[in-house]
Write a structure and sequence with these properties.
The chain is α+β, with helices and mostly antiparallel strands. The chain has a single domain, classed as Transferase(Phosphotransferase), domain 1, CATH 1.10.510. Helix content is 42%, strand content 11%. It contains 6 helices and 8 strands, in the order H-E-H-H-E-E-E-E-E-H-H-H-E-E. The strands form 3 sheets. Strands 1-3-4 form a 3-stranded antiparallel beta sheet, with helices on one face. The chain has a 3-stranded mixed beta sheet with strand order 2-5-6. Strands 7-8 form a two-stranded antiparallel sheet. The radius of gyration is 18 Å and the shape is globular.
Length: 253
């Protein structure tokens, strides 16, 4: 985690977004989270699976879309918490993404709002859009609440079109959040950086917060961090694909 300098934070959230390669606008072809064409995306994803694997099991396509969408608010929140100790607005109207030209996965993200929460020591604590919270635990609670609110809107919007029930959708939401927090640390490439990501996951998911389905499940096994997934990605239905490590279908809970 790096603390922004006073000079860099004079204009509030914008320097954080530049450092993390997050856009501030919606270029042509990008998708706002408040206006996602789910049917079109699902059709494109199904076509990609058929090209890559020869088959497109409906449950696999559905699970991929759910996980890939939830990656957007989870990744934005995790990156800003881990690297900047800031939490932006995660409202669907304030987030956008671009789908890759080949694999239809969100490969670039945008934060459109100016609002963010930060710690009292943040140099931009008096900037436009800043709200100061008392400590890191309070900041983690803001991230958890904002992510959960976004996921709830997704569950409401996509749930009627999904092959899965609410419990499975919320399990996927839990996986997306913890994986993003862990991944923000792992991207640092050192055991210390990964440990910081694990600590962030433990901070945000220190216990179960319904409708999220679990507290952090990260644990050390053979001197490596691993976690038990809450949801199944159904990749095992694809030709010659094995079951994932930590799959809830095979792991004891």
């Amino acid at each position: 985690m790096t603390q922004p300098s006073t000079r860099e934070t004079a204009d509030g959230l914008a320097p954080s977004l530049r450092r993390l390669d997050l856009r501030r606008d919606v270029p042509p072809g990008w998708i706002r989270c408040s206006a996602v064409p789910f049917a079109e995306w699902h059709t494109r994803l199904t076509g990609w699976l058929r090209r890559e694997y020869g088959e497109a099991p409906p449950r696999t396509a559905d699970a991929y879309l759910i996980a890939w969408y939830l990656h957007v608010p989870a990744q934005v929140g995790a990156l800003l918490l881990h690297h900047e100790r800031r939490v932006p607005s995660l409202r669907p109207a304030d987030l956008a993404f671009r789908l890759g030209a080949g694999q239809p996965y969100p490969d670039a993200l945008a934060v459109l709002g100016d609002e963010f929460c930060c710690l009292p020591t943040d140099p931009a604590s008096d900037a436009r859009g800043a709200t100061v919270v008392r400590d890191e635990r309070a900041l983690a609670a803001v991230l958890r609440a904002r992510y959960t609110a976004h996921a709830a809107q997704f569950v409401q919007a996509y749930g009627p079109h999904s092959r899965f029930g609410r419990r499975t959708l919320w399990a996927a939401a839990t996986d997306a959040l913890e994986n993003a927090l862990w991944g923000a640390g792992r991207a640092g490439g050192t055991p210390e950086a990964e440990g910081a990501g694990v600590a962030d996951a433990a901070l945000v998911l220190d216990e179960r917060y319904p409708p999220l389905t679990s507290a952090s499940t990260l644990r050390l096994a053979d001197r490596e961090w691993t976690r038990r997934r809450e949801s199944c990605c159904f990749s095992y239905l694809l030709p010659a694909e094995p079951e994932c490590d930590g799959c809830p279908r095979t792991c004891s809970r």
